[in-house]
């Protein structure tokens, strides 16, 4: 609202179907908020938002906030029964079509830091969606720190090339609007229109496997904010040659920002965050530990008391089960993935991300998921599923594994898919990959595109 008063003609948001200045956006938000209030939304209520158009989705999110309600962003394909299943006992006011602009008296906006101001779904790479609820300040108070780290300001054009159902992309869009920048929200990966968007964008938020795509032709891009898996040093070098500064971070929907690497020197605690890596309960994890965090940026928990990986210790520390090498304050945090994904094979523990990092560099491999598949004597064997239209030969893959991996880490089974299933954030959907593999091993038809490399 302040940007609308100070720079009314500044372009606030551009989507695939429409664009709005800050003045136009503010007017639509206020009119939509009146409509929601007429429908019974207000303080203490939940507004479920499932809209395909990202511009209309942002209008609805901010209108719910203006009305004092808690916006919950879901999928536009969900029906009422699905919403009831994911929202639990808190029946939301559903928004499944663009909100009308209702005329009337100004809507009073009195935001408080502790408001339950945001809810979004998280399934990570496994499990069923669960709604994560957070306070206003757990997101908005981190904005100035992100501005300092990235240099993003009111004169920037920020590309948000993914679905706003994802907390990574929804945070990016709301941060851009709070900063007074222009948010470009295509609603999905833009594909053929990427070059045109990069001619205007000065900053982009994305996941690691998409970074090389924007570096091929960076256009006006100055900064790339990358969240998710570890970033390959070679890609950071490519970014430097393209004149793009990379700010990579580690976090989770439940934790928000945990650690950030702004210069290639490794992940360091995000401002205000304390990190501990605690010994695992299972000795099979060896020297790896579990990441625990104490921070102002933590979510309150799951909607309706749903079960999830978030755990608390009573002293303000929380964990979602990620594992890392031993950590000392002042040193980089070296993540090794999610503890539950470790593969126990013949008495050895294999961290999938270690294997993936090596094999992802084989020419012809677009991406890779490593999982354990059952074995009668070893318990499980390391199994690699390669994303490739024309996969490299198994001989080349095995030669790389022999040269770079320990015996226990080397995959015994190899499969290929033209395209890996992915989560809303663009991460490989491990649960879906494991389901495809299980069907294949059980002799069921499964996915005809999943084929074994021999």
TrEMBL record:
<feature type="domain" description="AMP-binding enzyme C-terminal">
    <location>
        <begin position="355"/>
        <end position="427"/>
    </location>
</feature>
<comment type="similarity">
    <text>Belongs to the ATP-dependent AMP-binding enzyme family.</text>
</comment>
<dbReference type="GO" id="GO:0031956">
    <property type="term" value="F:medium-chain fatty acid-CoA ligase activity"/>
</dbReference>
<dbReference type="InterPro" id="IPR000873">
    <property type="entry name" value="AMP-dep_synth/lig_dom"/>
</dbReference>
<dbReference type="InterPro" id="IPR025110">
    <property type="entry name" value="AMP-bd_C"/>
</dbReference>
<dbReference type="Pfam" id="PF00501">
    <property type="entry name" value="AMP-binding"/>
</dbReference>
<feature type="domain" description="AMP-dependent synthetase/ligase">
    <location>
        <begin position="3"/>
        <end position="86"/>
    </location>
</feature>
<dbReference type="InterPro" id="IPR042099">
    <property type="entry name" value="ANL_N_sf"/>
</dbReference>
<dbReference type="InterPro" id="IPR045851">
    <property type="entry name" value="AMP-bd_C_sf"/>
</dbReference>
<protein>
    <submittedName>
        <fullName>Acyl-CoA synthetase (AMP-forming)/AMP-acid ligase II</fullName>
    </submittedName>
</protein>
<keyword id="KW-0436">Ligase</keyword>
<dbReference type="GO" id="GO:0006631">
    <property type="term" value="P:fatty acid metabolic process"/>
</dbReference>
<dbReference type="Pfam" id="PF13193">
    <property type="entry name" value="AMP-binding_C"/>
</dbReference>
<feature type="domain" description="AMP-dependent synthetase/ligase">
    <location>
        <begin position="106"/>
        <end position="303"/>
    </location>
</feature>
